[in-house]
Amino acid sequence: MIQPFNLKAYLDNNTASPAALHQQYLNHQLVKVLKTTGFDSDYVSAKGAWLYDENNNAYLDFLSGFGVYALGRSHPVVKQALIDAIEMDLPNLVQLDHSLLPGLLARELIKRAHPNLTKVFFTNSGTESIEGAIKFARKATSKERIVGLNHAFHGLSTGSLALNGSNEFKAGFGPLLPKVTHIELGDLKSLENQLKQGDVAGFVVELIQGKGVYMADASYWQEVQELCRKYQTIFIVDEVQTGLGRTGKFFCYEHYQLKPDIVTISKALSGGFIPVGAILMTKEIHSKVFNSMENAVVHSSTFGQNHLAMVAGLATLYVLEGENLIENAQKAGEKLVEKLKKLTEKYEAFNDVRGLGLMIGMSFSEPKSLSLRSKFKLLEAAHKGLFSQLIVSPLYTKHRIITQVAAHNVNIIKILPPLIIQDKEINYFVDALDDVLQDMHKGNSAIYEFGKNLIKTAITSR
Ligand code: PLP
What we know:
Helices cover 44% and strands 15% of the residues. The protein is an alpha/beta fold. Helix 9 (188-195) packs parallel to helix 10 (218-230) and helix 15 (386-397) crosses helix 17 (445-460).
């Protein structure tokens, strides 16, 4: 028997700088971006809504790993469930079997979904859920075209990438999935014009768009659903980011009383421990895809039903409901939005707060007062969206809060806090934002110097 692999000793003996390792073996450009924006702390532990560096400085995580850590980090219940699962030596990934755990997690998801959705296909990620949804819609309708929305984000594999509603990330990777059309969120006429051509297999939407936190009202979504029914187009709701309680309901479509044909999920489903995703669909769609014994594995994924992901999923649902986190997301979200709206009255550049539950976008626009406006214009002329980076960076470097600019070239900041946050985290964030905005509005030179530096670095690295 060889000695056990002692992870702690291994890490203690490997004191290489993480940045140097990434520079040499991983993404050196990202190393540069993190350094330039000031996001270059190294964390050594994480719990709940907080991350810690080696000096035990605490960082408030309002990004949640892009929405993965709905339960907060290192949740003890999910952790214990995974330890138990490993210790049970379960017969994982036999493949030619019908193992219990995927059946149990599928049943739990279906219990929480619209009665129209009765079947589940497990995946490993958000983009894989979208790729599956595209295939299923095509097969179920015998049509080819997929319609999506401008500004949409569905992932970065070639089908999802084609469906994304902006050109970022696409250059040089084509040709992508053909027969994809984009229309504007809220524009029913364009949707009907597309659908009535009779060749649209699926209309894929995020009910709250992750890139920019753009939303539409319930009546629009109801009409979308009706148009999809009328023209026999599969209505696909991408809940990879909005699902599992993020918006204050288990599924975001519940806010709009919708009955989608396919729903894609991922991110929060495993509590952040194991990659996982799922496609929920109607029985009709499922039976058109898996329509014979010969086609029993016509779509499959080696790790899709892996036991650790299934156990993490079951434990995540248990925690979400046992700790009333969905209700907390709704209440904490309302509190946050109310406090943030007060800041919009105080600061002229801060003009809108929107979202549902704990998916919140804050948008900034050109201030009216002359001195601030000229600074804003200068930054925007150098690089569109830089103004919001000048908020995100000091939120991190001065207050140790992780947030993100919501999309390329826009002055929108998005926050995705874990669903566990309480008044302490809400107040900490609002006070910090107040402080940063005050600095900006007073024309604090350090912030604008930092902006100039960002511009210089961006230009020299082109
Ligand atoms: N769909 C939505 C709505 C997303 O927000 C994302 C990722 O952010 C994806 C799909 C892609 O997920 P993944 O990064 O797991 O492939």
